[in-house]
């Protein structure tokens, strides 16, 4: 494939999945500032490795590959921040703001409780739920994005929902 | 008792995790970052002393810089032209839109080449 064709295809991929990558990033990091950075870094890294990814994908959709890049970058972001000293007070608002659930669910208490419960899940379970419910990915896509088998992914999602159910019930129910 | 709650939770998760639209400024920022990458690659090449190129061990970095510059530059043209095309589509249609898109593509290619 020549360079022009490669760039055209990357441009199509970018336009088709900008919202997916941004949605994943937003629910993963919990604020627009970091979500924009994460989205930007994801597409830059994707661009650098696009030709190889195309070659190795064997015609399969590249959305799981894009989300996997975002997933790994998000993990690195948290790892780097954990190593650093305390965040300066003036930055705490933008860097560590959690979900503004009011923005997301327009004041619906029930949905706000669900999102609050999701935040208590371990990272891999939370990620799997974001991929399934925010991006509408199926088990196979999620498995590719998380580097797991289809079976392990199915179990992961099942356990995530069960754990979330327990959290919500313990807090007073989802209904 | 447990299954209906799980089913409810799935319904609520679908409602709670609605897709989030990226801000308009993000696309602009992405394009500009690609542009910077192109410029960095070009500077890397310019800064490289010709004499050092006699040693094959020094060939790797300029080759990578050239590859990154070319890739990012070409990608930038595509992204910018598409962005302009979207803006113009709201204002004009048909032949005039095609003419403007071709002109924009030529302009962007010249811009990227001039920066090198």
Q: How does this structure look, described?
A:
The complex is a heterodimer of chains A (175) and B (116). Chain A is mainly α and 175 residues long. Chain A folds into two domains: 1-97, Rna Polymerase Sigma Factor, Chain: A (Orthogonal Bundle), CATH 1.10.1740; 106-175, Orthogonal Bundle (Arc Repressor Mutant, subunit A). Chain A is built from nine helices and no strands. In chain A, helix 7 packs across helix 9. In chain B, helix 2 (24-47) packs antiparallel against helix 3 (60-89) and helix 3 packs antiparallel against helix 4 (94-114). Chain B has four helices and no strands. Chain B has a domain at 50-116. By secondary structure, chain B is an all-alpha fold. Chain B is elongated, with a radius of gyration of 23 Å. The A-B interface holds A 3-4, 7-8, 10-11, 14-15, 18-20, 22-23, 26-27, 32, 35-36, 39-40, 43-44, 47-48, 104-105, 108, 110-112, 114-115, 118, 129-130, 132-135, 161-162, 164-165, 168-169, 174-175 and B 2, 5-6, 8-10, 12-23, 25-27, 29-30, 33-34, 37, 68, 70-72, 74-75, 77-79, 82.
């Amino acid at each position: 494939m020549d360079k022009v064709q490669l760039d055209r295809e990357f441009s199509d991929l970018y336009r088709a999945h900008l919202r997916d990558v941004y949605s994943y990033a937003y629910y993963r990091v919990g604020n627009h500032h970091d979500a924009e950075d994460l989205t930007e870094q994801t597409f830059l890294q994707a661009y650098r490795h696009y030709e190889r990814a195309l070659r190795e994908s064997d015609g399969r959709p590249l959305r799981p590959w894009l989300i996997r890049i975002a997933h790994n970058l998000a993990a690195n972001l948290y790892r780097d921040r954990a190593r650093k000293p305390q965040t300066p007070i003036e930055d705490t608002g933008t860097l560590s703001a959690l979900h503004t659930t009011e923005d997301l669910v327009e004041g619906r208490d029930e949905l706000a409780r669900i999102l609050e419960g999701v935040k208590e899940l371990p990272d891999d379970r939370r990620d799997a739920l974001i991929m399934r419910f925010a991006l509408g990915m199926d088990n196979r896509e999620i498995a590719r994005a998380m580097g797991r088998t289809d079976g392990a992914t199915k179990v992961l999602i099942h356990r995530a929902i069960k754990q979330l159910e327990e959290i919500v019930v313990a807090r007073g129910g989802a209904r | 008792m447990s299954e209906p709650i799980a089913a409810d939770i799935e319904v609520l998760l679908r409602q709670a995790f609605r897709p989030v639209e990226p801000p308009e400024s993000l696309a602009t920022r992405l394009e500009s970052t690609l542009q910077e990458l192109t410029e960095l690659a070009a500077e890397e090449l310019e800064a490289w002393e010709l004499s050092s190129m006699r040693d094959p061990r020094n060939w790797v970095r300029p080759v990578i810089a050239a590859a990154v510059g070319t890739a990012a530059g070409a990608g930038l043209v595509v992204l910018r032209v598409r962005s302009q095309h979207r803006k113009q589509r709201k204002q004009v249609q048909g032949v005039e839109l095609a003419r403007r898109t071709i002109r924009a593509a030529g302009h962007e290619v010249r811009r990227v080449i001039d920066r090198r």
